[in-house]
Each structure stands twice: as C-alpha cells, then as structure tokens.
Design a protein that fits this description.
This protein has about 180 residues and is mainly alpha-helical. The protein is built from six helices and two strands.
C-alpha cells in the first residue's frame, strides 16, 4: 500500500467572513473597555463606599479582627482579580471564535449564535452603552457568518479539509 496526498487549491475566503472575523475581534475591545470601567468603578471612592455599606449590612463581617478598611481592600482586590480572569476567558473565547470562523469551521457559527442569544438576554436584563454596542457588533458578525457567501465558504472549506486527508490506496506495480 502506498499513501497519496492530494494537493488542492485553498478555498477563497469571501468578504463576509473577513468582515465577520474583524467584527468578532472588535467585540473583544468592548469586553476590555467594559472590564476597565468595572474595575475603575470598584476602585473609585464611590465603589469603596458601596462596599463599606455592604460590609456594615453584614454584622458577621465585622466580628473578626480585620478592620473595615482591610475588608474593603480585600473586596476590591478580589473584584479586580475576578474581572481580570473573566476578561481573559472572554478574550480567549473571542479569539477562538474569530480564528475558527475565518478557517471555515461550521460549528462555530452555531456556537456564536448561541452566545449572541445569551448576550442579548444579558443586555436586555442590564443594558449599558457598551453592552448594546457589543451586541450590535456581534449580531452583525453572526448575520454575516450565515450569509450565502459565508455558507458556501464553510461548505467548501469543510469539503476541502475532508478531501485533504490522507487517502490510502492499493498501488499496483505495472511492469
């Protein structure tokens, strides 16, 4: 048996996929901006005052040896660490979606559509300028990923990957 690998021309990427890719990347900017605003809010004097009020509302929190200022500082640090982890996870998922979409992976459109729907629910529950802007950008990216040229590209990319796999055949020596 010999192994033959067929060389195939790459599938041409349509503008709809390229624009959707960059829109998904742009949505990462909204995530970074939103996280920066959240961190600034928690670290502001008003944020510290709100945390202080929350601690005073929980009498058990004041029973220990740690003072109120230390508790506020711990709460602020915890909020910053959690926000940083969330933005890193968001950036990772966003980049994965963008790269998979650009590569013509069909499953990513379904995942992006589900995440768009979940983001829409969150935006309805707590609308902000950034969440609405992000929703519009992601909505446009999802719509472009389902456009006819994108669908053709994803179908052709899938077929191209399947044909590009190693095909084993029986080689018959002709003398």
């Amino acid at each position: 048996m010999s192994t033959q690998k067929q060389k195939m021309a790459p599938v041409a990427r349509p503008r709809t996929i390229t624009i959707a890719f960059w829109l998904v990347i742009l949505s990462a900017g909204f995530a970074i901006a939103s996280s920066a605003i959240s961190i600034a809010s928690v670290m502001s004097p008003q944020g510290a005052a709100m945390l202080r009020e929350g601690i005073y509302a929980t009498p058990e929190a004041l029973e220990g040896e740690i003072g109120i200022d230390a508790l506020v500082s711990i709460a602020q640090s915890t909020a910053v660490v959690i926000q940083a982890l969330l933005v890193l996870i968001t950036l990772g998922v966003t980049l994965w979606i963008a790269i998979a979409l650009r590569a013509g992976r069909g499953y990513i459109r379904i995942l992006a559509s589900i995440l768009f729907f979940l983001q829409a629910l969150g935006t309805i529950a707590s609308p902000t300028v950034l969440s609405i802007g992000s929703l519009i950008v992601i909505g446009a990216a999802v719509a472009l990923s389902w456009a006819a040229p994108s669908t053709r590209y994803i179908s052709e990319s899938t077929a191209h990957r399947r044909r590009g796999r190693v095909i084993e055949t029986d080689a018959i020596a002709v003398q």
